[in-house]
Write a structure and sequence with these properties.
CATH superfamily of the largest domain: Bira Bifunctional Protein, Domain 2
Largest sheet: 8 strands, mixed
Shape: elongated
CATH architecture of the largest domain: 2-Layer Sandwich
Bound molecules: histidyl-adenosine monophosphate
Number of domains: 2
CATH class of the largest domain: Alpha Beta
Strand content: 15-25%
Strand order of the largest sheet: 1-5-6-11-10-9-7-8
Number of strands: 16
Distance between the termini: 62 Å
Helix content: 25-40%
Structural class: alpha+beta
Number of helices: 15
Radius of gyration: 28 Å
């Protein structure tokens, strides 16, 4: 009896070779963009002690209550969790290595994160984030820097159909007063709240504002607004941020109901949203989290940052007409087996030494079928090592994409092996025919 075929875990996707070029293209743009703003990479482990996220993200959040992949290490009983986001782990590392000792830091990370959510389009259980954190900066200029740099990234990669929503959550004391009034308001409308909202009423009432239930829209619309509870200082911070964005030409809407799903934020929160992807339209979210470092047992350190959801950005790029194919190979090397196979194998290495991108035909096959593979590989040239070429110390070159008879190597011709790399590079760079 044959064994059942194995399958990937639900909500966790394979990135297939046909999809990879667009990811590679996007990641290359992202690395240049991060460098251009002076950000440095930090890589933290995918596994952390569960406590890092419980303290970091907050106990009464969806992520910590029900979405974390947590387990006990069988060998030592430690409680561990696959990271559901980067921020808490990055702060843990910054504190552990005292990275802000000699001044503020601008940091970035990239990689998979894990949340046990109900999978649907744009919502997965393993997904990927580009994550940015700035630590040790207290003023709104760094919040503005993040938003302006995101606007620049969208421009670099050609993303349109995306808008920015912004809010200010004030400080803990302001939120506490707001929370009391919000609970009182929702208590007055208790019969209209759904089960989820009732469950959150006394633990995390701000999250009710984020409800996706259309029947709650009226109640939510009539709720008190955080912006009416801000101190003069918080209001000043928010106004300075807004004026910097306006001066930099970045459009935004203030959404007083934007609260975000993680508990560490104070003052600034924002989301970049698109209508092009259905219900999972938030492609990037972030904000300020000044209390987080202390909450995690460290010295008080202001911080703010954001994470881009890569699956969503990639899908939006496709919706905006951005497609990428794999960069073409320069050369595909074919041979006649036996001694010619070894010679071709070594010659391919010599061509790579010279900087060319080369695929070698592994295994034995007829020359005709190898030439078909060479053509399908997308390579510009086939290099052929047959018995005759081997005996003469030569290699034959045949252009695979020649548009006309004058193109270099449109007709197959041979060159000495030691001149091969040079001949190929000439043909690839200036297209001048070789003799
Ligand atoms: P977040 O809003 O939880 O923030 O996630 C950031 C982005 O990740 C979202 O805007 C979305 O694009 C993407 N995302 C979230 N969940 C899923 C999912 N299940 N499937 C696919 N994509 C998803 C954070 O993670 C914060 N740590 C951001 C931050 C950094 N704040 C300050 N610094």
């Amino acid at each position: 009896m044959s064994k059942p075929r194995l399958a990937a875990v639900r909500g966790m996707n394979d990135l297939l070779p046909s999809e990879a070029p667009l990811w590679e293209w996007f990641e290359a743009r992202v690395l240049d963009w991060l460098r251009s703003y002076g950000y440095q990479q930090i890589r933290t482990p995918i596994l952390e002690h569960t406590e890092v996220f419980v303290r970091g993200i907050g106990e009464v959040t969806d992520i910590v209550e029900k979405e974390m992949y947590s387990f006990e290490d069988r060998l030592n009983g430690e409680q561990l969790t696959l990271r559901p986001e980067f921020t808490a782990g990055v702060i843990r590392a910054v504190l552990e290595h005292n990275l802000t000792y000699d001044g503020p830091r601008r940091l970035w990370s990239i990689g998979p994160v894990f949340r046990h959510e109900r999978p649907q389009r744009g919502r997965y259980r393993q997904f990927h984030q580009v994550n940015v954190e700035a630590l040790g900066f207290a003023g709104p200029d760094i919040d503005a820097e993040h938003i302006v740099m995101l606007a620049r990234l969208w421009k670099i990669v050609g993303l349109t159909r995306i808008r920015l929503e912004l809010n200010c959550l004030g400080q803990a004391e302001e939120r506490a007063r707001y929370r009391t009034d919000l609970i009182a308001y929702f208590e007055r409308h208790l019969q209209r709240l759904d089960a989820d909202a009732r469950r959150r009423l006394y633990t995390n009432p701000l999250r009710i504002l984020d409800s996706k239930n259309a029947e709650l829209a009226d109640v939510v619309a009539g709720a008190p607004r955080i912006t009416d509870y801000l101190s003069a200082e918080s209001r000043g911070f928010f106004e300075r941020l807004q004026s910097l964005l306006t001066a930099a030409g970045v459009a935004f809407t203030v959404n007083p109901r934007l609260v975000r799903g993680l508990d560490y934020y104070n003052l600034t929160v924002y989301e970049w949203i698109t209508d092009a992807l259905g219900s999972q339209g938030t492609v990037c979210g972030g904000g300020r989290y000044d209390p987080l470092a202390e909450r995690m047992g460290g010295r008080s350190t202001p911080g703010c940052g954001f994470a881009i959801g890569m699956e969503r950005v990639i899908e939006l790029l496709r919706a905006c007409g951005q497609g990428q194919t794999a960069p073409a190979l320069d050369v595909y090397v074919v041979h006649q087996g036996g001694a010619t196979a070894q010679a071709a194998f070594l010659l391919a290495e010599r061509l790579r030494d010279a900087g060319l991108d080369v695929a070698y035909h592994a295994g034995e096959a007829s020359l005709k079928s190898q030439m078909k593979k060479a053509d399908a590989s997308g390579a510009e040239f086939a290099v052929i090592i047959g018995e005759r070429e081997l005996a003469a110390g030569e290699a034959a070159i045949k252009a695979l994409r020649a548009q006309n008879a004058q193109a270099p190597f449109a007709r197959q011709s041979t060159v000495p092996q030691e001149k091969l790399a040079e001949a190929l590079i000439d043909a690839l760079t200036d297209g001048s025919p070789e003799d």
